[in-house]
Design a protein that fits this description.
The chain contains eleven helices and twelve strands. With about 325 residues, it is α/β, with parallel strands linked by helices. It binds ligand PBG. Ligand PBG binds next to helix 6.
Length: about 325
């Protein structure tokens, strides 16, 4: 009797064997590419804290969307930077708003590519919060929800394939569902940012989208990083309210939450590999501390292994190129 009797190493001997027994695969079809579209921009502007990612004009966004489609990516997630911000974030629900215009242009040029519209007010409000403010500076949940629903209908009308509310107000999934149904968009699915943590890893995004709160922070509506049970509760509430897909955000520091939400909901789960996660790997790779390709593919595979069906990641185009 040889010792030890079980030799797991046997299955690691050759690349073909390793491939045969691999449990988790990463494919371009799992990845969604986020893009920033800026009103009035000619061409593109680099985002300093996100090397390789630019703010785009509508024409450049259409071009990048075409590249994403050609690489086998199923969809893009759109964020807008409006020409003007105001107290109510009116640019968000303007039928001629930047994301509405970009959505129409992308769908016209690339009809099979999914356009997922992020729905939030923070890129459109002059104070940078995700909802409407009361006179004491706190965010008013219910009036914010009405505007989130209105924004969702406007984006569906523009041709968005999926509506993704990221504001973290209570009850917004039910309100968005009802508003979409009333306006004839009962076939448009909702991807709810269900378990969204108040995270330091959104820093680069806020530079990119110019959405850093002018005062305070988002801890009154986003989740405390210590809370896993609550993350599951948030996801289950959104499912009850009609979410078709749920999201955990950020991804890498919350892989346990990804697994728990997947097991609890049995719905398609998205994980958002956010701007700060991207910036960390980029900075280390650019300094020569890491092999970018190997590190990115390992990180994305880990997110899939944790239970994510969909990964939203700024690495999407690079990863799809490497995976081909
Ligand atoms: C809008 C929103 C944010 C992100 C996605 N949607 C910023 C925030 O909540 O501050 C962050 C995405 C990223 O960091 O890549 N509410």
């Amino acid at each position: 009797m040889p010792f030890p009797a079980t030799r797991l190493r046997r299955l690691r001997r050759t690349a073909v064997l390793r491939d045969l027994v691999r449990e988790t695969r990463l494919e371009p079809g799992d990845l969604v590419y986020p893009m920033f579209v800026e009103a009035g921009l000619d061409g593109r502007t680099a985002i300093a804290s996100m090397p390789g990612i630019d703010r785009l004009s509508i024409a450049e966004a259409v071009r990048e969307a075409g590249e994403a489609a050609a690489l086998g990516l199923p969809g893009v997630l759109l964020f807008g930077i409006p020409a003007h911000k105001d107290h109510e974030g009116s640019g968000a629900w303007d039928d001629e708003g930047i994301v509405q215009l970009a959505t129409r242009a992308i769908k016209e040029a690339h009809p099979d590519l999914l356009v997922i519209a992020d729905v939030c007010l923070c890129e459109y409000t002059d104070h940078g919060h995700c909802g409407l403010l009361r006179s004491d500076g706190s965010v008013d949940n219910d009036s914010s929800v009405e505007l989130i629903a209105r924004t969702s209908v406007s984006l569906a009308r523009a041709g968005a394939d999926v509506i993704a509310p990221s504001d973290m107000m209570d009850g917004r999934v039910a309100a968005v569902r009802a508003a979409l149904d009333d306006e004839g968009f009962s076939d448009i699915p909702i991807l709810a940012y269900s378990s969204k943590f108040a995270s330091a890893f959104y820093g680069p995004f806020r530079d990119a989208a110019d959405s850093t709160p002018a005062f305070g922070d988002r801890r009154a509506y986003q989740m405390d990083p210590g809370n896993g049970d609550e993350a599951v509760r948030e996801a289950l509430l959104d499912v009850e309210e009609g979410a078709d897909m749920v999201m955990v955000k950020p991804a890498l520091p919350y892989l346990d939450v990804v697994r728990r939400v997947k097991d609890a909901t049995n719905l398609p789960v998205a994980a958002y590999n956010v701007s700060g996660e991207y910036a960390m790997l980029k900075a280390a790779a650019n300094a020569g501390y890491l092999d970018e390709r190997a590190a990115v593919l390992e990180a994305l595979t880990s997110i899939r292994r944790a239970g994510a069906d969909i990964i939203i990641t700024y690495h999407a185009k690079d990863a799809a190129t490497w995976l081909q």
